[in-house]
Design goal:
Layout lengths: L8 H18 L7 H12 L2 H11 L4 H12 L9 H11 L5 H14 L5 H4 L8 H10 L6 H10 L5 H14 L5 H9 L6 H13 L6 H9 L6 H9 L5 H11 L8 H11 L1
């Protein structure tokens, strides 16, 4: 359903509340969510009107309203990051909210705001019993070359929840520039994952750090079922001639298949290795 953008902010807030309730009951896919389309429109508007209403929502006795407020504050006028200071001051205390979903939304929004003042508050939540909160913590800690954030992500890379483990591995491998033995060990342990995406993110992280232990793992991925561009990026980063025949063989296999979109990545890896 098309969103009626002529509606006032107050009207959209009311619609967001209704959509939230409906999608909560039906466990709707977030990628096809009326709720998030409304929130995105409020982000785009990004004026003091939206900020004032979002702030008031975070002070509501209704947890859904507080969550809506937190979701709005994360990316309000996202292209200019408007109301940044004011939003951080509101979002950090919401990490102590009594409702798990409010805590999670505040953590995700702090990730969008990318402000290091959230780190000491986020790391306290790595043992939270709700996986959505832990997922929010991972997102909130992304992109910081900060020992506290990295140590928390290392712990979360072992998490029992797939999304938490997946994003923590990605952030350690690709978004973090710190290089420690503990971080490398955490990535190396993820090479035993059944999931190809998590293994791939660990491959990239180790290859980025030129860790020679990754060589056999890259060769195995090139021989086994193809899972995506991670192994190609890792091979390109390592630039090892031993990968050359496997890459050439993989290129032949991918031609004319639905994975032929990766041929450019294969060619880049071949150029680096051969």
């Amino acid at each position: 359903m098309e969103l009626d953008k002529s509606q006032s902010t107050a009207e959209l807030i009311a619609k967001a509340y209704e959509a939230y309730k409906k999608e909560e009951d039906n466990e709707s896919d977030e990628d096809d969510s009326e709720y998030w389309r409304i929130i995105a429109e409020l982000h785009k508007r990004g004026s003091s009107c939206e900020f004032d209403i979002a702030k008031a929502l975070t002070e509501s006795t209704d947890a859904i309203n507080r969550e809506i407020g937190a979701d709005i504050l994360g990316q309000l006028d996202w292209s200019r990051q408007s109301f940044h200071e004011e939003s951080i001051v509101i979002l950090i205390p919401l990490l102590s909210d009594k409702a798990d979903d409010v805590i999670a939304s505040a953590a995700f929004s702090l990730g969008h705001r990318n402000d290091s003042r959230g780190i000491p508050h986020l790391v306290k939540l790595i043992g939270h019993n709700n996986p959505r909160v832990r997922y929010g913590v991972v997102f909130g800690l992304k992109g910081f070359d900060d020992e506290r954030a990295v140590n928390a992500l290392i712990q979360l890379s072992h998490d029992s929840d797939y999304d938490v483990r997946n994003w923590a591995t990605f952030e350690l491998g690709s978004l973090c520039n710190i290089d420690t033995e503990e971080l490398r060990t955490a990535l190396f342990e993820r090479l035993s994952e059944e999931d190809g995406e998590i293994r791939g993110e660990a491959l990239v992280g180790l290859a980025k750090r030129k860790d020679l232990r990754v060589k056999d793992a890259i060769m195995k991925e090139l021989i086994d079922e193809f899972h995506g561009s991670w192994v190609l990026e890792a091979a390109e980063l390592m630039g090892d001639p031993d990968y050359c025949p496997l890459l050439r063989e993989l290129r032949v296999q991918l031609e004319g298949t639905e994975d032929s979109c990766f041929l450019k990545d294969v060619d880049n890896a071949i150029l680096a290795c051969c």
